[in-house]
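Is this the right way to post structure tokens for a design question? Let me know if I should format differently. Anyway, here goes:
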């Protein structure tokens, strides 16, 4: 532990009861001071209460440039630059090619693609030499899951960003990598399918995974902590699957 002692980290979507919060907790446990952002202040406050003084919450929306500026201004005020960025915030919805609206498409791509781009772009002046940038992609980008086309396409774009930005930033000693979680037990699943359908949906997802269950947010957080640390110093532009073997077996 404490592989990130003295480091500064940012986790977008860090208040949600899932990958973001679990990752913020893990990075803090590894010694980092973590700035978290998200649209729901109550959830951010819960995250601070559960993790403690190693976390600073900055309410905001990654699709709003002003909110991102406020986040990075607070990081700048700490005076240590930025060592770890986990661009995690995302949204999803179900809609087939027959039923999807342009509003559905715009909402998903505004958060998952444009928001990720803005999150990384605005961090660039703060990123220290040797910094690690981790983008949250998804195994959905590799599947043809019906009614999940916009989300899958947005995550394919995120995966592509990781390759390109790894090449563009390598000269500064900055490593860019992606993770691709499989199905993970988060509140986002419940929000997507409804409370009454969540248990059955999770069971179905788990049945399709080689390990026989869906993942825990803490398991993804452990992978992010690895990519954030010097333990992954020879990884750049990679896509680390955290999927229980879903895409591997």
């Amino acid at each position: 532990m404490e592989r990130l002692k003295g480091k500064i980290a940012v986790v977008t979507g860090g208040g949600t009861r899932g990958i973001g919060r679990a990752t913020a907790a893990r990075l803090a446990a590894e010694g980092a001071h973590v700035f978290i952002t998200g649209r729901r202040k109550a959830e951010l406050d819960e995250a601070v209460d559960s993790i403690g003084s190693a976390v600073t919450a900055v309410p905001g929306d990654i699709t709003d440039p002003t909110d991102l500026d406020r986040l990075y201004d607070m990081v700048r005020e700490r005076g240590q630059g930025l060592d770890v960025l986990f661009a995690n915030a995302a949204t999803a919805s179900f809609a087939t090619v027959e039923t999807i609206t342009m509003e559905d498409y715009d909402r998903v791509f505004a958060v998952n693609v444009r928001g990720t781009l803005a999150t990384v772009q605005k961090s660039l002046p703060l990123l220290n030499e040797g910094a690690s940038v981790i983008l949250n992609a998804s195994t959905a980008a590799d599947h043809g899951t019906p009614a999940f086309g916009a989300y899958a396409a947005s995550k394919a774009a995120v995966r592509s960003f990781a390759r390109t930005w790894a090449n563009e930033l390598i000269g500064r000693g900055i490593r860019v990598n992606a993770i691709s979680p499989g199905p993970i037990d988060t509140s986002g699943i419940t929000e997507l399918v409804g409370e009454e359908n969540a248990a059955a949906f999770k069971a179905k997802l788990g049945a399709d995974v080689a390990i026989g269950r869906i993942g825990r947010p803490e398991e993804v957080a452990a992978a992010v902590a690895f990519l954030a640390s010097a333990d992954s110093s020879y990884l750049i532009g990679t896509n680390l699957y955290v999927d229980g073997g879903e895409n591997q077996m």
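Format looks fine. Someone answered above. Worth noting: The first strand starts at residue 8 and ends at 12. The domain at 8-242 is CATH 3.40.50.720 (Rossmann fold).
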